[in-house]
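User: Hi! I'm working on a homework problem where we have to compare a predicted structure to a textbook description. Could you give me the structure for the chain below?
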Amino acid sequence: MEEESYDQGVDEVYLKIRDLEFKQRILKERLSMIGDNLIDFKEIVLSQNVENKKNIEKLNQSMLRMISFMESASVEFSKFARREDVEILAKQAKMFQPMNLVTISDLEKLKKR
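Assistant: Happy to help. Predicted structure tokens:
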């Protein structure tokens, strides 16, 4: 009887050890999967980071080109005449109208009438 209880105790310990080994193997596999997933995730994040840096550099270059264009355009715009200046010149041109100039002989003809 003592032997049977001893055998049962050994069997229980053996089963508990086997269960613990199984649980340890499962945890090891899970930990390995988590590690692999982290490595994959890190690679994805790094590749996206490199791509984002390239895009930012392209945007910076585009922005610098736009700034350069705006600066050159503003220099050119300052060379153009202002609206008020053009309106004054238009009024002066209307007042002058060389086709409607009256000659002295025309004035003398008008006086005789």
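For your comparison, note the following. DSSP finds three helices and no strands in the chain. The chain has a mean pLDDT of 85. Good luck with the assignment!
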